[in-house]
Every structure is written in structure tokens, then in C-alpha cells.
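Handout, section 4.2: multi-component inputs.
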Amino acid sequence: MAASSIETRFDRLILLHATLPRLAMAILCGAGLAVSGAILQQVLRNPLVAPDTLAVSAGARLTLGLVTLLAPGLFGFGRDLVAIVGAVAAVALVLVISRSRKYSPVSMILAGLVVSLYCGALSIILVLLKDRYLIGLFIWGSGSLSQQSWEPAIQLAMRLVVCGGVLLLLVRPLSVLDAGEDAARNVGVPVERIRLLAIGVAVLMAAFITSTVGVIGFIGLAAPALATFCGVQRFAARCLWSAIMGALLLLVTDLAVQLLSGDGAFIPTGAVTAVIGSPLLLLLLSRLQSRQPQPPTNETLTSSRVGQSRRTALLLTLLGAATLAGLAALVMIGRGPDGSWSILNGEMFADVLPWRLPRMLATAGAGGLLAIGGYILQRVTQNPLASPEIMGVSAGAIMGAAIALSFAGSSMDIGLGLATTIGSFAALLFVLSISLRRSAAPERILLAGVALTALVDAVVGLIIANGGPSSVLLLAWLAGSASDISLPVALATVGAAVVLLAVGLLGSRWLAVLPLGASVATGVGVRVPVAQSALFALVALTAAIATPVIGPLTFVGLMAPHLVRLFGIRSAPAGLVLSALIGAALMIIADTLARTIAFPLQLPTGILASLLACPVLLLLIAMGNKR
Amino acid sequence: MALDWALAETMIAIGRRPAGVVAAADYAKFVIEPALPPDTADLGLQQELNFELIAALRPRLILISPFLQRLKPTLDRIAPSLNLSVYEVSETPLANRIAITRELASHVDASQAAETYIRRLDALRADSTARLAKLQRRPVLLVSFIDNRHARVYGGSSLYAETLAWLGLESAWSKPVGNFGFETVGLEQLATLADVELVAVEPVPPDITYALSSSPLWKELPFVKAKREGRIAPAFMFGGLPSAERFSKLLVSHLEERWI
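Output:
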């Protein structure tokens, strides 16, 4: 009797302080994210933007991670402030990057993905270096709604209500935007200021929610999309219906998660919504009308000048090769057991070189491969943000590795490599099947990659949140560890780079013609779908070979082609060769730094490459704006 | 040299000095005892071994855990490597660790020291159980807090839970746990546990104390109301016998203060 009364008392307590706040939290977060997404979609006139695709969540997660490690005592408003700084910085970055592309939907999503990936890379290196068991960051990152008091829900509600008040004032001017910018200006709406304010409110809402419960994927994208799908036209109504849909979506998902998980494994709700949401993104893509091919830019119309620049191109290529050879000498420089810088001498040579040479060769080869892939991809899609990392092939590789590590646990000698390759090719097949069905609209392929990447991110979050030492291994693999590569593998990677470069050169006529547009290409006798599919297959192959070596998070494939453009190389064959050389050179520099800067710790080469590449990349894009 | 902390501490316990240890900087934070000799080289991160440094140190024997098994052929090029696992799923983690200690000892000519050490642990157990027998005992709930809403509870075949049983104490967590002997749960799932003593293993995230003190549910938990909750200093969860020894000492002296 007494025992059962204690139990009923506790059932009531759990209901009051855990179950009910959790329900309230799900409703609040769902509605808030959905409204945030609806505002962003209205302001940016883009059906694909949402807090997650604009990197709001990733930015907030990174800064919160930093603060957790550096100043862990923060809570309440301090935490919010940190999340807001991260979120605003990330969104600002995305907007700056996509400005040069006139905020086109695709470029904005891609910019968001790059920023998200970069934030993710930084988070990984934080965890690897600062704290082996910083699992909390990942649980939080995957968005668990578990509650144990009303306080967080009430705090969040107050903040969202304030945001909602500002939003009420914005509804009218924002609705006028439906009639077009000029019409809005004519009736006296200060378009730019309203836009900025609205984006601010949306980002704030998302940042508050992210700082309270972590990243809840895709609600902000899905709910407004559903509202639009159901035929809701006016902006005010869309906000309202988005809020209702978002609340329902998250509530149902969370209840399902609680029912299914029961006593068993711990499942963060936010990761589940992301897993459900990624296919939705794909569905949205097929409904999104294809962007008109851009008018050929000056860059691509200068074929008459190719003859003139051929000598320069040859010269630059030779120069590049010479530089690469010079950089290879870095293999001799390193740090001895006592930490001092030293050049390899006779005694140490036999001990150390067998470890240093393969990793340098392999990373250089892999960098070259990704750069080849990136050059082809950027050339064909005419999108400066395209690269194999973003095409989803790397994501497939991660998925393979994640599955192998979580199921095979610690006994995964060859399994890992095999799973990675299978994963890459599965992603390749998936992306290619979409490209074939949809007459290979380049941006659609990239977006399929985006959706895949988001899905994989969620799955990895799930695995890591459940802890266990194998999750640490997965993290290491994500970071792109090249330390244990054997000489045969290294030589094979370099060989593959050379062979695929030669194959790419065979297709350089396609590379020269395709950017001029489908009609021009068909006019000179190129079968566009065949050419595109062949080139994409080549890209996928480069990524599938390179990813197991240096991990999925380098931005070499993105960066090398940019540098080629900076040098003013326009002829396709020269550009391809130079891109490969630059990719290899970047990786050699990254690998040398990875070996030495934190001695005796060695850093994963892949992550170091991305740390180096990203700021330069952002600078290049910003410079591109001025031109 | 030892590429695994459990094996490194076992080596030190039986009087052998490892030339190098993986992530030596973090060892002091997570394993704490027995301390590394100051001249032990840091071999880099476990996920990113500094192979050239390992090679340059010219070790005689390399001790690895199953997580490095995939690197065994690579490491064997430097020196013979030996894979001893404290991570295996097993009903008797302590017995496993005793076996590991003996095997490790046989490879570094320290069998005598190992037997002495194991006998010392038996004496520790006899002493501890005698001390605990005088106290008012209840089941112990072992957790570590992850963030302000989640904790790992230890049960099953975790080193903590088995050490608890080794001391003759009862674990309060009877629900199934993951392969590594712990399960991540929301704090509200602890509400159903009535007459237990909560012991949180450090490190506890700093904002936990605040978050818990503001949680009505937490304050209503029977063991919190009765002030039957406390913390002990860190002990390495994936450790060897020395970590079990450290954990049991910390636990016994903590419980002696609580259960007067």
C-alpha cells in the first residue's frame, strides 16, 4: 500500500515536472522554428531556407561548444548570448557569400552548407583536442527535449513572445513583399530595413531555441513547406499555419521517440526530425523549378583568348609542378623526440621516413584528386561553391564508416575501408540516379548532396550521442587521420590521381563547351547528358578514392579551383592540371603543419586542411564580389 | 610503451615504467592514480598516434587496446605489439583485469610483482567490506552527469558496478545497460528509484549544480530529499585494476562519511 502510494506520487511528479514541460517544450520549439523558417522564406524569397540550411544552428552549436570548454559556468542569458553571437555570425557569413550570386536559392543553401560543415569541423577538432569525453556537446547538438522542470520552457516562452511581438509589427510590411520589391517601395515600405529586422527576429528565435534544447533539424524547413503545400497563400496565415504544423510535427515526433525508445537506447529527438526531414528536402527539390541557365559570363566567353594565354598557362603549370616538388622537400623537416625542430639526418632517416613519406604522398594524392573533382564540378555547374565534399559522396563514405563502426564495434580491420567505399558508391549511385531522371540539372545534383549530408550528419549525431569508445574512433575518422597509411596505399592514391587527371584531360573538350550552355554544346555536337554523366561519375570516383584517405571535411576540392581562377587560367586542360597541383600542394602544407605544430600531438591532416582552406576560401569569395 | 591508459596504469602498478603513453597530458586528468613518471613521453592522441615519435623512441614492446587492433600490423613494424583488452563485454570485468595484469606481467618480467599487487587488492577488499559492514547500507546508484538534463547510469558489467559488487554493495540500477556497461538517460528517469544512495563520479559539468537546484523534480527525488546524494573524485571508467582500486577507495571513504 505504502509503496504504491509512493509510486503514484512519483508518477504525478513526473507528469508535472517532466512530461508536461516536455510537451510544452516540443510545442514551443516546433512553433518557434517553424515561424522562424516562414519568416526567412518570406524575406529571402527562397523556399529552401530555414534556420538549419542557413547554418544558424551550426554556428550556435560551435560557439556554445567553445564556451562550454573555455567558460563553462554560463547559463541563462549568458548561454543565449553566446548562441546568438554564433548564429548571427554564421548567417551573416552565408549572406555575404551568397551575395555575389544574387541570393539565388541554390547558392544560399550551398553557402549555408559550407558554413555548417566548417563549424562542424571546428567542433570536431575541439572535442578531439580539448576533451575526450565531451559527449554533452553532441547530445545537445542532436537536440534532446528531455526536461525536468518548467523553468526552461517558461524562459523560452518569454523570449519567443517578445520576438512574436516584434513579428506582429512586421507582418504587414512583409506581406507587401509578396507583390514584389518595387511595389513595396512604392507604398512606402523601407524594404531593406524591414528585411534586416525580420531576418534578425528569425535568427534570434532560432538561436534562443537552439541554446535551450540544441539543434532540432528540419522543422523550420518542413513546417512552412507543408503550409505552402496545403495552399496557404497570405504571409500572416502562413506564419500561423507554419507554427501549428511545426508544433504538431515536433510533438508527434517527440512522442514517437519516447514510445519507441522506452527503456532502451537514448535517442535525441532533434536527430530524428533531421532523419525524417532530409527526404522532405529532396521532395521539395523536385518541386522547385529549375533555375534558368545563367548567361555565360565573360570568363567563359573568352575562347578566342585561349590561344594567347596558352603559353602563360604552360608556364604556370610548370611553375606549379616545380613548387610542388619544392614542397615535397618538407618531408625532411620535422620535430625530434625532444620537440626540437630538425632536419632528418642519417641516423633518424630509417626510423622516421617510413612514417612520414607515405602520409605526405597519400594526402597529396588525395588533395589532387579532390581538386580534380572540384574543378570539373565547378566548371560544369558554373557554381563556384560546387565540390565533391558537397556533392554527397563524402557523406556516403561517412555513412558507411559510421555503420561499420557502430555495428562491428572494435573488430573492424578491413571492414572500415570496405564500408567506406560501399558508402561512397551508394551515394554516387543515388546522386547519379537523380541526375539521370532529372536530365542532369546540375544544381539538383548538388542539392541531393546537401540533403544526403544533412541526413548523415543526423545519423552520426545519433551514434555519438550514445557514447562508447567507438564513437571517439568515428570522430577521429571524420577528422581525416592520415597517420597510419602504408606506402602501397599512398602510392596507389598518387597513381589514381595521375590516372584520373589523364582521364579528365581526355574530357577537356566537354569542360570547355559545357559551361557555354546546353544549346551551344549541342550545337557543336556534344551530347550533353552523356557528357555530364560521365564527368559526374569521374568526380564521384575522385571523392570515393580520396575520402578514406583524408576524411570528408577538407575543403581542398572547393578551394583549389578558386585559386586557379584567381591566377586567370581559363583553358580547361591547363586549369585541370593546375588545380590538381594546387590541391596536392595545399595538402602537403597541411600535412606538414599537422605533424609539427602541436608536437608531440599530431593533428588529423583533413581537419587541418579545412582550417587552412576555409578562411582563404571566404576571402576569395569576398574578393569575387568586388570584381 | 603503452598505447592504452588501462595498460599503462597496470604497468606502473606492477613497478614497470612505460617509455611513452598515449595522451599523457589527459592521463593526469582522467586516470590520476597511479601518476605517470615525469619523463614519460606523450605519444599523441589515441586517434592520431605520432608514429614517427614512437619509432624514434625504439620501444621493446607496444601494448595496445582492441581499438588500435587495426593498427597492429603497422605497429608491429616498430616493435612487437600486444593487444590486451579491458573493453570486452564480460560478466566479470574484475576477473578479466586480473588475468590481463598477469599476462602483461609475464611479458615485462614482473610476475612476482603482479602476484604481490593482486594479494594487496584482496587485503583491500577484506578491509573495505569489514568497514562497510559496520554501516547502514542501501543500494548505490552510480551516475555521471553529462549535461544538465542527462546522466550516464552505470550497471551491468561496467568496472564501477562490478567494483561495487566486489565490495559487497548492491547496485540500484537493474535495467539493461549498453555494451560498455552504462546507459544515457534523462534525469527524470531516475525518479522511480526510491531508497538508494546516489553517487556521481566527477567531473560534473559546472552548470549542473545550478540546473539541479532549480529542478522541482530533482528536489522531489526521494534520495535527494533525504540528502542521500554526493560526488566522488574521478576514477577511470575504462581502466585496469589500479582504477578499480582507486574507485573502491574513493567510494568506501565517501560512503563512510555518508552512512554514519
